[in-house]
Design brief:
alpha+beta, 6-stranded antiparallel β-sheet, 108 residues, Aspartate Aminotransferase, domain 1
């Protein structure tokens, strides 16, 4: 389980990101491209951008932890993460993957 505070601490460690509103959610962006969204009122789920291949690998682990968004966005790699069920290391890896997918930078 990962708390919203831990999630936000992880997000703020990425270089050159901006935190901006996105409809009723908050987004994290790099190069003005969204790589993570979340709703502070909900606090249980975040949505990240992965490649379809990376999405299939992460989602194969446990569909209660990570699963594709149920529409065309999901087919493009947008993936929900259940913060109440994911471990910190897996979340950290998925966030890095999302950042690298959108920014084109390798952080590892």
């Amino acid at each position: 389980m990962v708390s919203m505070n831990v999630f936000l601490e992880m997000m703020r460690q990425f270089p050159d990101i901006e935190e901006k509103p996105h409809f009723e959610k908050i987004s994290f962006r790099v190069k003005n491209k969204i790589f993570v969204t979340f709703s502070p009122e909900d606090g249980a789920f975040v949505c990240i951008k992965l490649t379809p291949l990376s999405q299939s690998v992460y989602c194969a682990f446990d569909k209660d932890v990570m699963y594709p968004v149920n529409n065309l966005w999901g087919k493009k790699g947008w993936t929900y993460i259940n913060l109440s069920k994911i471990g910190e290391e897996m979340l950290k890896d998925a966030l890095h993957e999302s950042y690298e997918t959108v920014s084109g930078r390798k952080k590892h």
